[in-house]
Amino acid sequence: MQRLVKEDVLVLPESSSYDTKKLWHLTHGMQRLVLPESARDAQRLQELTDELVIAHKQIDSIDHQLYAHDL
Q: Where along the chain do its domains lie?
């Protein structure tokens, strides 16, 4: 089967032998690859958000101490 690639899009000829079942398996396999990566990204984003909250609390604490000592 001849495949043409145009601007990063796979173009299948009209006479393509890709039927509905084959396309379903192809997209299902792609989802199995993408979903775990997306979950890892979401987990990492939550970790970074938590770290940012901790950093803000530490900065506020230092700021309060400096103000208390009139620095």
A: 4-68
